[in-house]
Amino acid sequence: MTQPLMTLQPIKIAILAMGGEGGGVLADWIVNLGEENGYFAQTTSVPGVAQRTGATIYYVELFPGADNPDTPSPVLALMPMPGDVDVVLASELMEAGRAVQRGFVTSERTTLISSTHRVYSIAEKSAMGDGRVDSQALIRHAGQAARQFIHFDMAQAAQESGSVISAVLFGALFGSGVLPFSREQFEETIVRGGVGVKPSLRAFTLGAEKAAQPEETYQAESSQLIEKTPKNKHVAVLLARIESQFPDHVHYLAIEGVRRLIDYQDPAYAESYLNRLQALFAQKGGDDPRLQRALVRHLALWMSYEDTIRVADLKIRDSRFARVRSEVQAKDNQLLDINEFMHPRIEEICETLPKSLGNWLMKPHWIHKAVRKLTQKGRTITTSSLWGFLQLYALAAWRRGRRSTLRYQLENNRIEKWLDAVTQAAKSNPALATEIAQCQRVVKGYSDTHARGLRNFQILMEIVERHGSQLAPINLRELREAALADEHGNELKKCRQRLAME
């Protein structure tokens, strides 16, 4: 552990926390800890932006000598400065990265204490592709930047103790040994607060213990394979088929694809997925390992397209209600209302209907106009109420008729055209076929997001059709990445102009 900071310079502490995580409480605890034990203390805060684009920065300075009448009142700073912070407390891993980026963390003096869990930013969530920042890279850079780096999953510790992250951070701050206060003084501060004392003390203890342990090795979340010996005979047959008839290098992805499609529709739908894959693998060029992995992954994703039925199903699942209750930390004796804003376009309504009826309603007659007018403003459905739940339950139950819907017919036709393009390219250029298979990444989401992605995908497929085998795989990759960079198509247009593929 580092030596306590006992100089006649202020101890400078920056806290980066998001809303609802108790950053203000943590700052108040540190101020109270100092003031009750002979220190001048001051705290300020700079609010972040809502919707997870930045955290509030709380800044605390502690100066010794408040218990000495001869010590003059110090002039303390109002905000942290790069290269001049002793301790940085971050409630989430990205915030630790932001602190490093801003220069608050230096290898000469700064102790960085951070949770390793992630709350994805708006930029990460809204990216057309995988916009997530590499957590391991964040940890590596933070460790290189700090004098001492204490990190573990504090969200999990808070959940285990029934408290919030601020109490875990307070415990980790004690465990780091950088402040000249005893454990008793830390705990007395929590007791003086008088709110949630017992769970806060539990969280404090857990944080202190974790901080004293060797650094943990961060492990990203990984998907779990479905049960190897499922009770459902049809599912067991599908798994056995993968094990015996598919190459080893696609087993994991194929099993995950089957799991996803059973959850989405039924075992028969998952069987059609395997049938398609085997037919593709049997074609000329279909034995290329990279192409096979791309097809196994992206075919499963496209076949589980997000329609109104899927959205309704996900919103009324027990796991979702449990997750929301956990996130807001609702107690068993507390009621929780969950309001869902639903705004289906007329296109989604038509596509949810049987094919013939959907095509009829899609035509611009007076009924079409009336339905469009009734649904243009959207509505709020309280899924925690009986009536709201039953509305979405009825829609989710329509998945039994999904194969008859207009949307199913449209998506199935698009999938077949895409697979045909992959098959044709694989005969002469498996690398190009792989890039075509990965173009599925552009099509995702629902409503306007899906419409924009589909438009960009169709542009890519038109380029593939126009240039055929003459199209260089690297050029298609550039075009696809441009489409993923901007859902409105501006970057794709620039890339097409640069490659002379207008």
UniProtKB/TrEMBL annotation:
Protein name as annotated: Putative indolepyruvate oxidoreductase subunit B
Domain Pyruvate/ketoisovalerate oxidoreductase catalytic: 19-207
Entry keywords, A to Z: Oxidoreductase, Pyruvate
MF term (GO), any: indolepyruvate ferredoxin oxidoreductase activity
Documented EC number(s): 1.2.7.8
InterPro entries reported for this sequence: DUF6537, IorB_Oxidoreductase, Pyrv/ketoisovalerate_OxRed_cat, Pyrv_flavodox_OxRed_cen
DUF6537 domain sequence ranges: 253-461
One protein family per Pfam: DUF6537
Species name: Providencia alcalifaciens DSM 30120
